[in-house]
Amino acid sequence: MLRGYVRRIRPLDILTQEQLDQIHTETLEVLERTGINFLHKKTLELMKDKGCRVDFDRKRVKIPSWLVEECIRRVPSSFKIRSRERKSDLRVGGNRLYYLAGAGMRIVDLDTWEARAATLEELDEASVVNDALDSVHIVADTGPYTDIVGVPPIMSSLVDIASHLRNTTKVTIADNGNDYETFHIKMAEVAGCDMLAFLGSSAPLTYDEATCEAAFRYSKAGFPFFLISSDMMGGTSPATIAGSLVTTNVEILAGVVMLQLIRPGSGIIAGDYAMPLDMRSGHPSFCDLGSALHTVAFNQTMRRYEIPAFANCPGMSSSKEIDVQSGYERSMSTLSAALSGANMIVLHGTIYGEYTYHPVGAVLDDDVASWVGRLLEGFEMNDETLAVDLIDDVGPIPGSYLNTAHTRKWWKNERFMPKAADRLTYPEWMKTGKKTALDYAKERVKEILRTHKVTNLTEEQDKEIDKILKDAHAYYKKKGLL
Amino acid sequence: MNNPMEITIENLRKAICEYDNGLALKTAKEVVEQNIDPLVAINAMTGAIREIGNAFGRGDLWLPDLVGASDAMQAALPVLDEEIQRRGAQRMNKGVVVVGAVFGDIHSIGKTMVAALLTASGFKVEDLGVNVQSKRFIEAIRSCHADIVAMSALMTTTVAEQKKVMEELKKTGLREKVKVMVGGAAVTEEFARTIGADGYDPTAPGAVELAMKLIEK
């Protein structure tokens, strides 16, 4: 099992107990007064059968409070996801933090910072890098790339997942819609693993047909769920953080009810992807402070419910380049999410929003993720580390700790050694030709691609995956989607 | 200024500038009751919208202001349009745009912003909503005598629907009569080119500029 990072420090709370309770009560009120639209007949019938008030014409479901609270109780506080190798299994929840490598539509040129379609080779390389990075624990469905040379858009998610299965043993998320579920489930069976099934509400207050259908299909396959609410604050949810906290919570809990009614005990990690709407362009404001505050409060809310929490905002930043802005946007967002108890954070590799990606970015994010993860684990405090006897031995000047066994034993443990950062002295830095973190990251990617050994699928499994892709291709061609 | 007609026109401008739908509708009715030329009333509103648009361009006002002003104008338009028709006159507009999110896509915010901004810029907009089948696009283009059709798709999987609409336009002989613009997070310039669309823009204000360019062609 992948260890991830175990949070040993008290999580950051920004809501008082009374505020936390009020968010819950207001959520129950919206679920019962306003309700949610489920655009799927089978889901409407299920909800009606289990005690909700359902208007079939409007497709509106009003969920009674007792049912919401019952379904929250059914969500396990942590759950397992099987990968295709035991060492890459995950236990999601509790005080553990994992990182998800992100998804971007296109690859970015590291000189011009312009976006272009990725090649299949670049797709595979990105997965190999993610397999090698210690702080990547899970990889994205529509990622890293969806604009791939020679791959029709409808096939990109399936091609991505096939590339994951071939180039990393780490768990992958599974996509939904357009009958992708059928093919993802088949691929998972061939590879002998589970996938984390992605479902998302459509703000405001709606679950579309494809999502509901996927809920049934993936429940039958026994996959746990990654359930996300993507509010655009001021656009599809209130402009206020408190108001969007309510709408996010409403959408998440409506999804929790749906999933727990379909299959009681389903593992769910609830995702927050609330972003302020940029009031000039109509696009999301990536890595905004508003998102960070929302995420911190969301994590606290999920801890109240003992539902594992996922922070989707940190890996989507505004800068189009890997620069100071992207550094501070991603680091501050990751840190606030981790300190407030997120169980999973999306980070590695994305450059601008979900538009661009590069494995060099993933390597730099590996240092950020590891730094933050290490911070969560705190430091050891015991007689040996307090070192009072040693302090007495060494005494004042000219005493030194450099030559002590204590220093030899402990120094590496008590700091962080980044793998792609400039830590040289000034004269050394001049001698290297002024190498930057970006230079080190490029070298690290080359090194990984040259030396890293991936646990491949067997030849038989590989052939089966190929067949599934061919079948999918024929299926979508017949449907006129190719 | 104590001429009642001037006061009414000023109230209409006020309704736009204060994003007051209720006042806009009330004042539109007063325009009709007081026998004011409805085209004068419309000019007053578009003038107010233009000022708000300029302020948006300078960065002094934002999307909520533009959309609020557009909504207020939309509240007044049906009453004024009816009066214009009754008088046998015609409302000038920059062009007619059919707007919708393609079949399979229920995401509405982007399309709603574009529709509001197009209205604010003087276009007549027929908003078909979300999850729009290709034949509904075709019917609307025909019945409205649309100059432009603006389609949005948020998800990669529904981008294929935009292709479908293009094929329907060719089949029904409408392709030459209407300009096609596409947009949405999943749409790229290359895709727009591949399907033969006339233009693409990823932002709401950009969509308006594109519509202005297309209408001149």
Topology:
The complex is a heterodimer of chains A (482) and B (217).
Chain A: E1 5-6, H1 17-33, E2 36-38, H2 41-49, E3 53-55, E4 60-62, H3 65-74, E5 78-81, E6 90-93, E7 96-101, E8 106-108, E9 115-116, H4 120-132, E10 138-139, H5 156-167, E11 171-174, H6 180-191, E12 196-200, E13 206-207, H7 209-221, E14 225-229, E15 232-233, H8 241-262, E16 268-272, E17 275-276, H9 289-305, E18 309-311, H10 324-339, E19 344-346, E20 356-357, H11 359-376, H12 383-386, H13 388-394, H14 405-410, H15 426-431, H16 437-451, H17 459-478
Parallel strand pairs in A: 2-13, 7-10, 7-19, 8-20, 10-11, 11-12, 12-14, 14-16, 15-17, 16-18, 18-19
Antiparallel strand pairs in A: 1-7, 2-4, 3-4, 5-6, 8-9
Helix pairs in contact in A: 1-8, 3-8, 4-5, 5-6, 5-17, 6-17, 8-9, 9-10, 10-11, 11-16
Chain B: H1 4-17, H2 21-33, H3 38-58, H4 63-86, E1 96-101, H5 109-120, E2 124-127, H6 134-144, E3 148-152, H7 159-171, E4 179-183, H8 189-194, E5 199-200, H9 204-216
Parallel strand pairs in B: 1-2, 1-3, 3-4, 4-5
Helix pairs in contact in B: 1-2, 1-3, 2-4, 3-4, 4-5, 5-9, 6-7
Structural features:
heterodimer, A: 482 residues, alpha/beta, 8-stranded parallel barrel, 4-stranded mixed β-sheet, 17 helices, 20 strands, B: 217 residues, 5-stranded parallel β-sheet, 9 helices, 59% helix, 10% strand
Explain this structure to me?
The complex is a heterodimer of chains A (482) and B (217). Chain A has helices at 17-33, 41-49, 65-74, 120-132, 156-167, 180-191, 209-221, 241-262, 289-305, 324-339, 359-376, 383-386, 388-394, 405-410, 426-431, 437-451, 459-478; strands at 5-6, 36-38, 53-55, 60-62, 78-81, 90-93, 96-101, 106-108, 115-116, 138-139, 171-174, 196-200, 206-207, 225-229, 232-233, 268-272, 275-276, 309-311, 344-346, 356-357. Chain A is 45% helix and 13% strand. The mean pLDDT of chain A is 97. Chain A has 482 residues and is an alpha/beta fold. The radius of gyration of chain A is 23 Å and the shape is globular. By secondary structure, chain B is an alpha/beta fold. A 5-stranded parallel β-sheet of chain B has the order 2-1-3-4-5, with helices on both faces. In chain B, strand 4, helix 8 (189-194) and strand 5 form a beta-alpha-beta unit. The longest helix of chain B has 24 residues, at 63-86. Chains A and B meet through loops of A and helix 5, helix 7 and helix 9 of B.
